[in-house]
C-alpha cells in the first residue's frame, strides 16, 4: 500500500505545484517537504493532508501530531493508519 500512497501523494503534489505555476521535481520517498526542493509551503502541506484524508478516509493525526519530513514518512503514516 505504501506504493499506492506514494503515487497518491505525488499526484496531489503535482496538482498543487501546477496550480502555483511551479514545476514539481522528481519525487522519491526521501523528498523533503518544507526544507527540500519541493515547491510547497506550509499551507500547501496542510492542503495536501486534508485532500489525503478525504481521498483515503484515514486520519493518521487523529490521536495527535506525528512527525514526518519526507514523502516516504508521510506515506508510511497513512499506510499504518489502514
Helix content: 40-55%
Secondary-structure arrangement, i.e. CATH architecture: Orthogonal Bundle
Strand content: under 5%
Largest sheet, strands/sense/barrel: none
Tell me, rounded to a whole number, the average pLDDT.
91
So, the CATH homologous superfamily? ACP-like
What class do helices, strands and sheet pairing give? mainly alpha
* Tally of structural domains: 1
CATH class: Mainly Alpha
The beta-strand count equals 0
- Cα-atom radius of gyration: 12 Å
Notes on the protein architecture:
- This is Acyl carrier protein.
- It holds the Pfam family PP-binding.
- It comes from Azospirillum picis.
- Residues 7-82 form the Carrier domain.
- The chain has 82 residues and is an all-alpha fold.
- It has one domain: Non-ribosomal Peptide Synthetase Peptidyl Carrier Protein, Chain A (Orthogonal Bundle), CATH 1.10.1200.10.
- Helix content is 52%, strand content 0%.
- It is built from three helices and no strands.
- Helix 1 (2-19) packs across helix 2 (42-56).
- The radius of gyration is 12 Å and the shape is globular.
- The termini are close together.
- The model has no long low-confidence stretch (mean pLDDT 91).
List the helices and strands and how they pair.
Blueprint: H1 2-19, H2 42-56, H3 71-80
Helix pairs in contact: 1-2, 1-3
